Amino acid sequence: MASLEAKKTMACRSCGSKNLTKFAAEMTVHVLGLQNVDKPTVLVFPSPLVCMDCGFTELKMADDELRLLGKDSASDIEAAG
Known about the structure:
alpha+beta
């Protein structure tokens, strides 16, 4: 979690604004495509950093949440794309 001082110096990657706010969130993540409908979803609890001027949002998933998504998810997404 970024310190308040770091937050003041960070800028939005999209518009350059420094008007950023961190929120608590919960999301269900799943692999795209009908062929992946049987794959389990993963409930994650990121802390998204939202630009209050343009809406651009960044978040990082915890390592244990990434492990739950599985190593083959990236290839499944490319195949569904």
